[in-house]
Design brief:
mainly alpha
Length: 361
């Protein structure tokens, strides 16, 4: 049974909302590990979280065992691309599932982008407040809009443009307020810069996945993340040793209390949330998901207020409100406005003088 586009979109939004709650909770856990438990080890924390993706091998193995026991799996290779064509039937290339080799290749390319984005975000989170980090991370909105439009990974609409513009306005308010912030943050300016770097790499890897995968039916998500975890575990371990030797980040074994934080954050803030995230992205699109993650803003501000007693200025709150309005706008359709915009572009193109042929001059 083919799922309708409206149902796909609705499921994607539900997954996105789940990601928002999980990411906000993860932000507070990381912030607690860095400041409350005095375990400022962003590389080790990110490395541990990414390697936990290998836990997806458990359901993969159980599934394979179940199929073997029940003998429901055929002798045909599950990785083989479906035969196009029995009796002249054609298969849309965009719907053909990725093989294990193709999945591994996409995972290998993705894991580097993912690690850089998460590492810079984690370092920034230890230097600035949770609300500042999450709000500035929403700058991935304009980056994603530009990149996704350029490569054809998503469609450009007026509503999406306005949504991203509102996000930029909100980020500007936050940055201006944070410059003179008196809230508890070790280095708010550097933390903001690192959050923006994370936003750039986020935009790169979310568009990369949309281009490489397209429809969610093409990807075995658990297999994909299992590869990501394995690649990170193997290839990033030498970098952690190098960081220890050079003094960039001296590795320190976590205390028992910190271990609990690391495991909970990895399983819910990384393993589960990223599964929901990639599902939401493939069902709704890179721009909607990217702007939608700005919903972490009000949640993180409320969390800062309750857990730390941090209060924010009217300018800061205005920035948060603008970003939330931007998310709402990104999910609305303004067909008449888009039609007028496209008509204006078409008229502009027709009215512009054609390039002169030098040969006819």
């Amino acid at each position: 049974m083919v799922m309708s586009e409206k149902l796909r979109y609705a499921i994607g939004i539900v997954c996105l909302i789940g990601v928002v709650f999980l990411w906000v909770g993860s932000s507070f856990l990381i912030n607690y590990a860095f400041t409350g438990a005095n375990y400022f080890q962003p590389f080790a924390l990110t490395y541990f979280g990414t390697t936990m993706f290998v836990t997806y091998t458990i359901p993969i193995g159980l599934g394979a065992l179940y199929r073997k026991i029940t003998s429901k799996s055929s002798a045909a290779d599950a990785d083989a691309k479906p035969a196009a064509a029995a009796e002249g039937e054609t298969v849309d290339p965009k719907m053909v599932p990725l093989t294990t080799k193709e999945t591994a290749m996409v995972a290998f390319q993705f894991c580097w982008l993912w690690f850089i984005a998460n590492y810079t975000s984690n370092v920034g989170l230890g230097l600035t407040t949770v609300a500042s980090s999450t709000i500035l991370a929403s700058m991935s909105g304009p980056f994603t809009l530009i990149l996704a439009t350029l490569v054809g990974a998503d469609t450009f609409t007026v509503s999406k443009f306005l949504a991203v513009a509102l996000s930029i306005g909100g980020v500007t308010c936050v940055a201006l307020d944070d410059n003179g912030s008196t809230t508890e943050a070790a280095n708010p300016i550097l933390g903001d810069v690192l959050a923006l770097i994370g936003a750039v790499f986020y935009a790169i890897y979310i568009v990369f996945l949309k281009v490489k995968i397209g429809h969610e039916s093409r990807l075995r998500t658990s297999l994909f993340f299992a590869f990501v975890g394995a690649f990170n575990a193997v290839f990033l371990l030498p970098f952690m040793g190098l960081a220890h030797i050079t003094g960039v980040e001296t590795f320190r074994w976590p205390e028992k209390e910190v271990w609990g934080v690391l495991i909970i954050n990895a399983m819910f803030g990384t393993v589960l949330s990223d599964y929901l995230w990639i599902t939401a992205m493939l069902m709704t699109g890179p721009i909607v998901v990217t702007v939608g993650l700005s919903l972490t803003t009000p949640l993180s501000m409320i969390g800062d207020l309750i857990l730390k007693g941090i209060t924010y200025s009217p300018l800061y709150v205005t920035g948060a409100v603008l970003i939330v309005i931007g998310f709402i706008g990104a999910n609305l359709e303004f067909k008449q406005l888009d039609a007028k915009f496209n008509a204006f572009v078409a008229r502009f193109r027709k009215s512009s003088p054609p390039a002169k042929d030098a040969a006819s001059a």
